[in-house]
Amino acid sequence: MYEKYYGLKERPFQLTPSLNLFYASKLHKRALAYLQYGLSQGEGFIVITGDVGTGKTTIANQLLSQLNQDEIIAKQIVTSKLEPDDLIRMIASCFNLVVTEHTKASYLDAIYSYLKRLHSQHRRALLLVDEAQNLPLASIEELRMLSNFQLNGKPLLQSFLLGQNELNAIIQADNMEQFRQRIIASSNLSAFQIEDTKAYIQYRLLQAGGNAGILQDACFALIQQHSRGIPRKINTVMDRILLFGYLEECPVITAEHVKTVLEELSQEIANQQPSAPVMQVQQPQTASTQSMLSELSAVLDSALEQKIRMAKELDVLLKRQQQLLNSRDNKES
């Protein structure tokens, strides 16, 4: 909608990752270099972690775009809480493998046969596991077991794990020592500092064919504060800022414009914090309430004592009646 107004060839801040708009910050360059290094080694695990929206999937897509398809067959899977057997089935499916029997042994045999066939063609397989923090420990251990598939001393399958920061804690578990020994490199993506946020926005505007100067310098601090330097949040707010500028016919975006957009965003449901449950506060008892409760308690106690007395008297009467009946029976006999 706003592309023509600002002279853009495409939307520079769409949420879907775009290879053409990839901005390599210092941390992103390091993470990508680790992935490329892992590829050159042809063995072991590479682990890339980071908060939601910091660019892990974007880096994975960038790596996949650089691969020589004649040498490396790469597949990317996004995991949920898959148990080991389900994970094996998903891996077989992503490589388009067909089995006659739906057993774990059959799936493993199909994977191994496929990997040996690639090896005979001087090719190898690469598996990128996205959202790896969702995997149970047993499933991560299953990935380690798959890395044991070898031929002539060369691993047949290499895996890269991408996940949120919770993945670090999972890998540090006591029973993950063998897996940790297979990790040849790891990197953690953190949020941008304000300099990177500014460079990121200007780079994307230029790559989309626009003018990096459409935002005044005072805008970047406000965007940084709202987004906390997370690329996905930067994309969201920048998309809205450009839409606002188009609707209000603002060729240059000022800090006041950004404040207006941020205020609008704060009122939307996606940016509202969940309300805390309302706690019922017990009101302190007043003197009159305490007096009323005391009187009620006394009445109840009195009624209870009266019932106990009546029960005892009834019991005595029943005993006397039983004695009279017994005496009459004796006389008649």
UniProtKB/TrEMBL annotation:
Name of this protein: Putative secretion ATPase, PEP-CTERM locus subfamily
Taxonomic lineage of the native organism: Bacteria, Pseudomonadati, Pseudomonadota, Gammaproteobacteria, Chromatiales
Domain ORC1/DEAH AAA+ ATPase, first and last residues per copy: 41-170
UniProt cross-references to InterPro entries, sorted A to Z: AAA_22 (IPR049945), ExeA_AAA_ATPase_DNA-bind (IPR052026), P-loop_NTPase (IPR027417)
Top-rank taxon, per record: Bacteria
GO molecular function, one term: ATP hydrolysis activity
Pfam families recorded: AAA_22
Signal peptide: none
